[in-house]
Amino acid sequence: MKNRTLLFGLISGLIVTVVTLIGMASLYDTDREGGMGSMVLGYTTMLVAFSLIFVNIKTYRDRNGGIISFGRAFRIGLSISLIASTMYVLGWMVEYYAFLPDFYDKCEIHQVAKLKAAGASLTIIHAKAQEYEQLKQMARNPLVHALMTYLEILPVGLLVSVIAALMLKRKPDNGRIAMG
User: Fold this and answer.
1) How many helices (H) does the chain have, and how many strands (E)?
2) Residue range 53-87, pLDDT digits in tens
């Protein structure tokens, strides 16, 4: 079953990485609107990719006589989450450092322009600009940047793993006779 978990983790990672990286690159298209819509797409993609956790746990349970503990089911989900999250982090790190080193500058310009168009006060605009300056400082350190990126995706995988393990766990019947 380890091979299936690895396969499902790689497929999940491929789905979330490809869709998210295309979305990140699309922020460079000045005719497109980023922001909330891209966040919704990103997290929806993560949920779709992590739906393979359910499939793999159910397959394991079915091949194991219909029995799986919460702990075993969670470990399967955790393994898939870690594989997919690591692929996502590595993909983003390569894309950011090799191809989009001004990504956060573009995001800052976009967000500030949005705030100005909405009539935000200079205090709010300045606070948003400062937020991006801090983000850019943190992104200069690849380890910190990788940890920040893990914090985007790994909690989603952990949540799906817990839900899947709770829904799909099944204990042995222990020979009880059904009364009916």
Assistant:
1) 6, 0
2) 999 999 999 999 999 999 999 999 999 999 999 99
